[in-house]
Amino acid sequence: MLDQARVMRALENVYDPELHQSIVALNMVRNVAIEPSGRVALDIALTVEGCPLHQKITDDVNHVLRQDPEITDVAVNLSVMNEQERKKAFQKAFESAQQNRAQGATSAKPNVTPPTTSSNTRQAPVIGPLPGQGPAEGMMSDANKTVVIGIASGKGGVGKSTITANLAVALNKLGARVGIIDMDIYGFSQGRMFGAKDKARVNEQEKIIPWQVHGVYLVSMGMFVEEGQAIVWRGPMLGKMMQQFFTDVAWPELDYLLIDLPPGTGDVALDIAQKVRKAKLVLVTTPQEVATYVAHRAGDVAKRAHQEIIGVIENMSYVLCPHGDRMNIFGSGGGKALADLFRVPLLGQIPLESTVREGGDEGEPVVVSDPESLSSHVFLDIAARIKHRIEEEAAG
Ligand SMILES: Nc1ncnc2c1ncn2[C@@H]1O[C@H](COP(=O)(O)OP(=O)(O)OP(=O)(O)O)[C@@H](O)[C@H]1O
Fold first, then answer.
1. Ligand 1: which residues within 6 Å by Cβ?
2. Which CATH superfamily, name and number, covers 142-395?
């Protein structure tokens, strides 16, 4: 008999394309109504408004239900989860990703046969260049060989700037020429981390001369205003600033340009995605669920922009006790769950060490101030993994 249980069983085979979980398990299916004619109407609550993959979910629901000979018609009404429901859905996805990992599975396997309708082949909309935007210049262009990597986090304080600084120095130690753009306009801190204080100077061509410290070239808002001074720029001004940091700086030839992005998924991250189409992304999170949850959103913007996510770095992962045990004071598993969600590697787990903070406060990233510390070794290891991956990609 055609009843709700049978409909729900069929829908267990429809997977959320981003969370890789059944839409039933994620509690996305609501208000299933079966009419005597065999018409099934149901609501699907999407995790985020304007979810770019809603058409895929709708197509898959139609596809699985229409395989039931007693179902004559399907009507899908889309709605959006509230904040609490969304948190639960993400939590469920994280737990499941962790479970899969524990069981040695690489990912949950949807067993829905993709329908062959043309609408199913529709991808998440690409965030394209802005109208009126000219061709990308210099290091922003695809033709330029500098590898641009944005360092992003969902929320502030997870160590994104610390990681940018140390990765830059670590890549330099591995023989690469590295620059940093401190695009964390409202919370710029790279000058402090590198002990650079001079105000901006320009060369004869009127280009800004980057700071050069510990082998790394660096530009930051700190060259123009004091740290802590409020900056009230909005969208277009920020975009212009970003462009200037790329094009109006006397950059030497660089192998890597790291961009310390502002936390969250705001204008700057989008601007980079639009204007520097080759830019890749590294996601930073702490092991806590909430940091991981918000980092997911940062990654989601990258995915929509078809930006490559190189991997995830988990910071403040553990404290190493004197007898060698690891204490997970901020919980555990967030970085790996996030990496599993995006199907990218967890590049490394950085311990919580006072030497990391001291190095940042004193203008010497820990990789310089305490190269034998555990964190320094982890930073070098992560830098080597990134470099290896980029070189492999370049080799085809
Ligand atoms: N692994 C670590 N061990 C100890 N302290 C750390 C570690 N990582 C970062 N910190 C410290 O945590 C604080 C926040 O780090 P940081 O400024 O890098 O975060 P952020 O994500 O860039 O923050 P925001 O975006 O708000 O600027 C700093 O004082 C930093 O020295």
1. 153, 156-162, 184, 187, 189, 263, 315-316, 350, 352-353, 356-357, 360, 375
2. P-loop containing nucleotide triphosphate hydrolases (3.40.50.300)
